[in-house]
Amino acid sequence: MIKKGTRVNIYGREYSIKGDASDEYIRELADYVDVKMREVAGNGSSMDAARAAILAAVNIAHELHRLKKEHKERDMAIYKKTENIIDTIEEQFEDIRFIK
After folding, report:
1. Which residues are bridge partners to 13 per DSSP?
2. What pLDDT, in 10s, does the model give residues 37-66?
């Protein structure tokens, strides 16, 4: 079955987007892009859509890279804490072996 496109409105223009995601998710993404384009254009601005789209894309890319960096740092912190816990447990077992 061929899925029909989900109709969305971004920066005053209507688009039909096809994809495997749900219609709700596609609309959520489109709304996010619309908000970002309007943010960079400013209130009441008549910035052309191409310029607004480029600036919004750069802002979204910045968010993505910042979140990836934060995710990587969090993963590293979890890894280090896990290693410390494992080391502590292994030390406890070594102490138990010597007691026998």
Report:
1. 10
2. 999 999 766 789 999 999 999 999 999 999
The neighbouring-strand residues paired with 18 are none
Domain that holds residue 33: 6-99
Does pTM surpass 0.70? yes
Round to whole Å and give the CA distance between 54 and 40. 10
* C-alpha pair distances (Å), 28 with each of 35, 51, 81, 86, 95: 11, 22, 36, 42, 56
Q: Specify whether the CB–CB gap between 15 and 30 falls below 8 A.
A: yes
Question: Is residue 66 assigned to a domain?
Answer: yes
Structural domain tally of the chain? 1
